[in-house]
Design brief:
- This protein is mostly helical and 137 residues long.
- The protein is 80% helix and 0% strand.
- The chain is built from four helices and no strands.
- Helix 1 runs antiparallel to helix 2 and helix 1 crosses helix 4.
């Protein structure tokens, strides 16, 4: 989440046009989603084996919360919360471990990146007069 928020702030502070900042923010998230979703199944299996070897329970409080979000809102809910709560890596791993097809992960993460990237870029442009932006100039 930090990188997803810091990207628009740094881009606007550097004087880049808002459209370019938005595009780079979306491209950064989607690059991460593509990379993680391509190796996600193997990584999820590795994590499952590691957890079983250590004798850890399959479900924790956090995993139960994530599953309840998925049951209630589906992949739309996971994608919506990914940039601001889970991070692009975390959201993609969650979707992969819930056995969501890769094309659905890519589709939902794309609209989420477009929505949140646009919103955060607009906020950065709107509040670019604040002193926080001076440290980047």
């Amino acid at each position: 989440m930090f990188k997803f928020v810091a990207g628009p702030v740094a881009g606007v502070a550097a004087g880049l046009p808002a459209g370019l900042v938005w595009g780079l923010t979306v491209a950064g998230m989607m690059t991460t989603v593509i990379l993680i979703s391509s190796v996600g199944k193997a990584w999820a299996l590795h994590q499952r084996r590691k957890r079983a070897e250590k004798g850890k329970p399959l479900f924790s409080r956090r995993s139960r919360t994530i599953v309840s979000i998925y049951r209630r809102f589906g992949m739309v809910g996971i994608a919506f919360l990914t940039p601001v709560l889970f991070s692009p890596i975390g959201g993609t791993v969650i979707a992969t471990q819930l056995h969501v097809p890769r094309w659905r992960i890519l589709l939902h993460m794309l609209w989420s990146a477009l929505l949140w990237g646009g919103a955060l870029t607009l906020l950065a442009v709107r509040f670019s007069y604040l002193p926080i932006f001076d440290q980047y100039r």
